[in-house]
Amino acid sequence: MKKKVIQFLFLILGVFGFSNCGYNEIQRKDEAVKAAWAEVLNQYKRRADLIPQLVKVVEGFAIQEREVLIQVTEARSKVGTIQATPELINNPEAFQKFQRAQGELSSALQRLMVVVERYPELKSDKNFRDLQAQIEGTENRIAVARRRYIEAVQDYNVTIRIFPNVITARIFGYTEKPQFQVENPEQLEKPPEIDFKKK
Amino acid sequence: MFKMLNKKNYFIYIIIFLFPLYLLSEEFVPIPKLTGRVVDLTNTLTSSEIQALSKKLENLEKEKGSQVVVLLIPTTGIETIEEYSIKVAEKWKIGRAGVDDGVILIVAKDDRKLRIEVGYGLEGAIPDVIAKRIIEEIIVPEFKKGNFYAGIDRGIDAIITLIKGEELPLRENKKDSNPSLFLIFGPAVASFILHFFINTFVAILITTLVFFVFGVFSYGFSLELLGLVFIMSILGVTWYRSKGFGSSSSGGRGSFSGGFSGGGGSFGGGGASGSW
User: Is the pTM of this model over 0.90?
Assistant: First the structure.
């Protein structure tokens, strides 16, 4: 009887030990990062889907702004060429490329939204207003999704670096996930150009 | 080096150290407590107006289960209303867990900005475009005239109408029993009873295992759970041994104060913002 009790205790100790090596924790956080990333991709895709409609509506009122429209369209198609797969987070290089393309699209869109201010008829067009609300909503969702991804990755990256987990992570091949940086660093470096003549 | 640390310099050091704290307190507006369905920190609404709105929102929750709340604050500080509003949403967790059917109408009065933050589950009923229209066509015209109550009231009406048109899971009555109480006191009682019949050690082990398995099913695997169940089953035996059959106190149940709290709904940044 006593022997069985001791065996029982060892069994519990074993379960204790196994869950202490961090394997379960890594699994949980790895999955959290994947889910957060899927949401980021989802929202980026939503934005990309809205752009052709937006370009079409703006063209109807402001065909003179061809340059900005072309920039948006080009940035949009560039984003489309990069395969946005869930596996992207395991390839830091492709991840950076994807991020850069999305950043370019963000700034092209911003420029378009500034230009649009000069066209009161466009601004009061119902289609345009609806699209604008959708784009604004999507940009906000992207911001939220990015922040949640950043938090999930932070949590995961710390988890696989602290002591007992670091060994488990090595054994099972879990590496750090890439983190988001400022969306368009080039744009931050150069001061905004203000053209006073045009007004 | 030590000479520099005379009394005058101390003062400067203290200021230097405290300065960042000052900045923090100035610029990041803390998330207010969820004291009711309508939280007004600007004293814009009268208490009867707050009551009327709260009643309306309470009726909606009784009927559809969705939670809608209104927050009026003077300013969102250095953060944009979108950044601030999602933080409020993450803290308050308005809406039912899993259904995510919460809406927050947030007004930053001195910033002259407002936002409708829509939970995941209502993004279909209240798409961004519609949220924007509610803001621009219903709320903002009233706000421009200074009629804050009318704007909020009519905006809320529009939101309620949209939610009522949406098919949501039926409202289920909250279960009164708290499963964690079962896990806390269950092992103690079980091991206490068992140890009359079998070896004390075995009694502890069996109760630990049985309750641990139960716990894993409802909460998932965790060491804290195992520890809790183990300690409680030991306590069930030892408490009797040390004290004998004395008074047996019943576990105090956390009483509900009848107040309002978020149901655990989550948000993903849906909705729209506007200004007046």
Answer: no
